[in-house]
Amino acid sequence: MRVKICGITTVRDALIAEEEGADAIGIVVCSDSKRSVPVSRAREIFAALRPNTEKICVTNTDSQSDLELILSLKPTAIQIPQNLKVPAGVGTKIYRVASGEASISEKCDAVVIDQSCGRGIVYDRSYAQKVVEKSAVPVILAGGLTPDNVGDAIRDLRLYAVDVSSGVEKSKGIKDRKKMREFIEICRRPAV
User: Domain N-(5'phosphoribosyl) anthranilate isomerase (PRAI), which positions (predicted)?
Assistant: First the structure.
């Protein structure tokens, strides 16, 4: 199971997440989230990571100029709302956020089920199941995941990856090494 640690706000936490085995690091930019960092800090965090670690920019913006700024970071992927238009040939993967009854765009590389947006609200299992069943692209689950519930989510749903933010924090935007390690270890266990 692939694991994204999201809401990273410091180089230190990014390197710890990477060291503990995270496949992807998510940085919130151009957003009203309390975990949003300036583009300059996102650039610094991405520069510290190994080349094989996915670098994902997460935003809820609807501004095309913000999108251009985000794309200037050259992330592996951008996680964006369903309605944000992306020019063809941007050279990065597009992850669209599914969070409600709106139709899910198939013009993307993956769908992220995220009704929580970093608030720790546990995902709706029936909604997640519907998205997994209907999606023609890989599905990533976010929303209230913790070391206590991620194993059940992985067993219950056919997911491409899981995405955690508040579930591995000691305070808003500051990650806890022990929680990250435990979360990743659970995700790596063979399915039973």
Answer: 3-185
